[in-house]
Design brief:
Length: 151
């Protein structure tokens, strides 16, 4: 398992010759599938950003990422919304804290858990991530309806 917070700032090197592509600025997440899809790499003095597909990451360790250099005619990268620091809202609009970190499997790119100010959320509760918030299911999938009791 790796934490998003530990990946930020890691150097990104090419396989073989070990050329430095830059450092990890952020990870792009597809909340619907619960996976990391891209790595945003900042390089150079002008802080140019390169977007690499997670599929192009050949190895991820505690000290660096090894990734294939971007293709010269790459497709338009997907929109990016930072998971870390996002508000957490249920699909009903109920506030559920703020994202502190997320744990993911670097081999499969699957998010395992999202760590929030109100506790840990399993990845199967994620519904979407946008500019405004991370949207989650109010209850775990398969959980029955909430029943309120009269006082």
């Amino acid at each position: 398992m790796m934490l998003f917070s530990r990946v930020r700032g890691l150097p990104v090197l090419t396989p073989g010759d070990g050329d430095r592509l830059g450092v990890v600025r952020a990870l792009t997440v597809d909340a619907v599938s619960g996976t990391v899809t891209h790595v945003r790499v900042r390089s150079g003095r002008l802080r140019k950003e390169t977007v690499l597909a997670w599929d192009d990451v050949e190895a991820a360790g505690p000290d660096m990422l090894i990734a294939l250099p971007p293709a010269s005619a790459s497709a338009e990268p997907p929109p990016h919304h930072d998971l870390l620091g996002s508000r957490v809202l249920t699909e009903d609009g109920e506030e559920r804290g703020t994202v502190l970190d997320a744990a993911f499997d670097p081999l499969t790119a699957r998010i395992k858990a999202v760590l929030t100010t109100r506790g840990e959320l399993p990845a199967d509760r994620l519904l979407g991530l946008g500019d405004h918030a991370l949207v989650i299911r109010a209850r775990a999938p398969g959980a029955g309806p909430r029943h309120r009791t009269a006082d």
